[in-house]
User: What shape does this take?
Amino acid sequence: MQTNTIRLVLALLLITLGLCRQASAQLAGESPATAELPNAIDLPALLRIVREVSPRLAPERQSIASAQADKIIAAAYPNPNISVGTAHQGGRQTSFDGRRQNEFQIDQPILLPGQRAARVEKVEREIQAARARVASGTSSLAGEASLGYISLLSAQEKTILQTSALRELSRLRDIVAGRADVGMASRYDLARLDVELASASTKLEEFKAEVADRSGGLASLLGLRGWQPRATDVYGPLKMDVKALANSTTLIDRANASPTVQLATEEERVAQSGVALAKRERWPVPVLNLGRSWSTTPYGAANAMGLSVEVPILDDRRGPVVKAEVDAKRAALQRELALSAVAATLQRQALVIAARQSALERFETDAAARLASLKEMAEHAYRLGKGTIFELLDSTRSRGELLEKRVDLVAALLEAQILYLTASGELTATP
Assistant: This one.
């Protein structure tokens, strides 16, 4: 008895601790799912968060459940109608011999062969279209999140470069201060370095604010409250075969496999099944009638059986068929348009990737390779008295601007690569 009591108390304590942790997470502005997310993430981890954690796709996923519920409705058979009535005759008997007559009747609609199957087929197509819609939404959200991640990564890289530039300026100030102590540099040189340091410190704070803004923007995009993501990927372009990207066969294959074209294809199939259903529904549904009537005082009974059906004279139900055929034609045109648009986007992004990769390679060869020698020559010239403080600062500033230019070139190339992968659907296919 005591052992059971102790177990019960321990269980209550564990439940209480769990509730307290959940409440503290909510008070801190974090949902339970967000509290478990790592802040340091790479691109594959971000894509997993998009697919598995982000609540942005939850409403779209409910459309699948809604379509599955529609399948239950479509697969159901029509219910029978039951009517019960009684009639009392006073005075002289005119309509029937008894004083009271009772009636009971059942009307059962009978679906024609193929009607129920056509309804179920259309709903199954709608389920596939709902899944394709979720896949397309996932791809779009993953693309936007990846672009936000690249923006955050470039802001972090600029912050690192500016921090390094600030350390370099501090080192140069020590050099100038040492030369000023021995009379080899003027107080103006030292003051000029102090101004440059202050400006660099301000710029660093601006970069830090930009990192915070882009981190918060990424969390807001995914709908994750209280999350502060930090990019951990090595800053550089993705490895892609540029020549294979622009291949015409590859473009068509990737365009057909894209989530946008897949969605348009499924919607076309839904429209085509709508045509088949409209043709089936054009035939009126017959209703089987079964009834019995009986009278009292005296007793008499009669059974009845009949069949009722609508006669399509005034309305032959051709309108729904025509409308369904028009919708199917429109869906086919939209699929062709989606295929052409995605193929054009892939071709354009392939050309952009090739051009930006070429620009980055040329920059690495022509400019980045000379940065170290530029820094060394400017510093030696100043130490030997052959260069002024303006030349030294100009060299340092030019080096920082070139490094920031490289960050922008890599970011532009990464954005083009992400847009290509998003259009082709390969981005969400990343494990």
